[in-house]
């Protein structure tokens, strides 16, 4: 069984200095392997400095977005090889804030996923329904569309390098977490869909994160769901103490 993955998505928060201070604390806290894959996604400006602190430690770095071309006249964009060189191992793609605020479509997210894999980055591919879609009973149809279009031309072998994050849009930054039942059911649907598109071994090995108002009090019950393999944490990852508690979720239960 693969170890649980806990990722901090800082979004547009933290200066270079604040990012470095945070990861220095994190590295001290997790000097020894703790049975988790710990990933931090700082803003672009802090990636290089953060990776200098985390090199050779148990902490992994993710970017929050990228463009699919390798280089060129794309003002304001950053490419996969640039991120890899700066020390990223992962890249968050298709986050609902990218879809909503920047109009990213499934096809563009697919281009990004394929480009990330080409340059050795592991995509954290985000999917999830809006409140309106859930209330209209369209949750599974939306997830199915996002998976099929986002993973177009992806092979079973590629899937070994992909993490999927289920983030119901209505739960992000709202303090309203999905119930264990709602999250567990969506994760089970995603795994079944991957088994159908690829095969059962690929589906079994796939890491599926839950994201949406995860905090130290609800992480334990979410991780108790068999198809939840980790968490993508926004707001509650900004404070070191809170993020450490989430990573050590089993100790919170004692
Ligand atoms: P949140 O964000 O934990 O603040 O809800 C999660 C995310 O957007 O990845």
Structure description:
With 254 residues, the protein is an alpha/beta fold. Helix content is 45%, strand content 15%. It contains 13 helices and 8 strands. It has helices at residues 16-29, 44-54, 80-86, 96-102, 106-118, 131-135, 139-150, 156-159, 180-197, 200-205, 219-223, 240-247, 249-253, and strands spanning 5-9, 37-41, 59-63, 90-93, 122-127, 163-166, 207-211, 230-233. An 8-stranded parallel barrel has the order 1-2-3-4-5-6-7-8, surrounded by 6 helices. Helix 1 packs parallel to helix 2, helix 5 packs across helix 7 (139-150) and helix 7 (139-150) packs across helix 9 (180-197). The chain is globular, with a radius of gyration of 17 Å. The two termini are 23 Å apart. The mean pLDDT is 96. 2-phosphoglycolic acid binds next to strand 8.
What are its keywords?
13 helices; 254 residues; binds 2-phosphoglycolic acid; 15% strand; 8-stranded parallel beta barrel; alpha/beta
Low-confidence parts: none
Residue share in β-strands: 5-15%
N- and C-termini, Cα separation: 23 Å
- The averaged pLDDT comes out at 96
String of helices and strands: EHEHEHEHHEHHHEHHEHEHH
Overall structural class, as computed from helix and strand content, comes to alpha/beta
How helical, in percent, are the residues?
40-55%
Report the bound ligands by name, code or SMILES: 2-phosphoglycolic acid
Q: What is the topology?
A:
Blueprint: E1 5-9, H1 16-29, E2 37-41, H2 44-54, E3 59-63, H3 80-86, E4 90-93, H4 96-102, H5 106-118, E5 122-127, H6 131-135, H7 139-150, H8 156-159, E6 163-166, H9 180-197, H10 200-205, E7 207-211, H11 219-223, E8 230-233, H12 240-247, H13 249-253
Parallel strand pairs: 1-2, 1-8, 2-3, 3-4, 4-5, 5-6, 6-7, 7-8
The protein binds 2-phosphoglycolic acid (PGA).
2-phosphoglycolic acid binds at residues 9, 167, 172-173, 211-214, 232-236.
């Amino acid at each position: 069984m693969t170890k649980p993955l806990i990722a901090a998505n800082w979004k547009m928060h933290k200066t270079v200095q604040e990012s470095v201070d945070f990861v220095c604390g994190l590295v001290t806290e997790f000097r020894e392997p703790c049975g988790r894959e710990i990933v931090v996604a700082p803003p672009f400006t802090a990636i290089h400095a953060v990776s200098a602190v985390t090199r050779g430690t148990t902490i992994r770095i993710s970017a929050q977005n990228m463009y699919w071309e390798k280089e060129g006249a794309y003002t304001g964009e950053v490419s996969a090889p640039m991120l890899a060189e700066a020390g990223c191992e992962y890249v968050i793609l298709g986050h609902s804030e990218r879809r909503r605020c920047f109009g990213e479509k499934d096809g563009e997210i697919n281009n990004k996923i394929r480009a990330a894999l080409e340059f050795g980055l592991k995509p954290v591919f985000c999917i999830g329904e809006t409140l309106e879609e859930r209330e209209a009973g369209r949750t599974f149809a939306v997830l199915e569309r996002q998976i099929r279009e986002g993973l177009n031309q992806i092979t079973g072998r590629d899937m070994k390098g992909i993490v999927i994050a289920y983030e119901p849009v209505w739960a992000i930054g709202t303090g309203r977490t999905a119930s264990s039942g709602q999250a567990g059911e969506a994760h089970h649907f995603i795994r079944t869909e991957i088994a159908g598109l690829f095969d059962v071994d690929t589906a079994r090995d796939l890491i599926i994160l839950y994201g949406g108002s995860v905090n130290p009090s609800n992480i334990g019950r979410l991780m108790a769901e068999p198809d939840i393999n980790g968490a993508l944490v926004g707001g509650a990852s900004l404070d070191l103490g809170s993020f450490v508690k989430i990573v050590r979720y089993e100790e919170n239960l004692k």
